[in-house]
Specification:
By secondary structure, the protein is mainly alpha-helical. It contains 3 helices and 2 strands, in the order E-E-H-H-H.
Length: 112
Amino acid sequence: MTDPGIPQLQALPDGDAELSLVVRLQWEDVAALGQDAARLAARFKRPVSLDEAASHRLRIRSAAAHAKAMPQERAQPAVASTTVSPLPTRSPQEQARQAIEKINGSNGHETA
């Protein structure tokens, strides 16, 4: 059973997640997305949908925000500790699954 008020998330094989939602935009914003789609289509040499252009724009903003935050994180002194072990690396699929579970407020398995 799905609640229409809760967007559906889907884990993708490449480790990304897909979120379907409806967004109300002004025509100027739709035109800007169309221009982005045209530029991406020229670069990729294939058709690009408005959905893909919007996703690309969000990724660029997210990467820019992350890069902007990085110098602040590096400015803080690093503290080495021998009592903390590194976290095991997780596959992109596992990361996506855990992110979806966190968003949905459920946990498929509990760890002791």
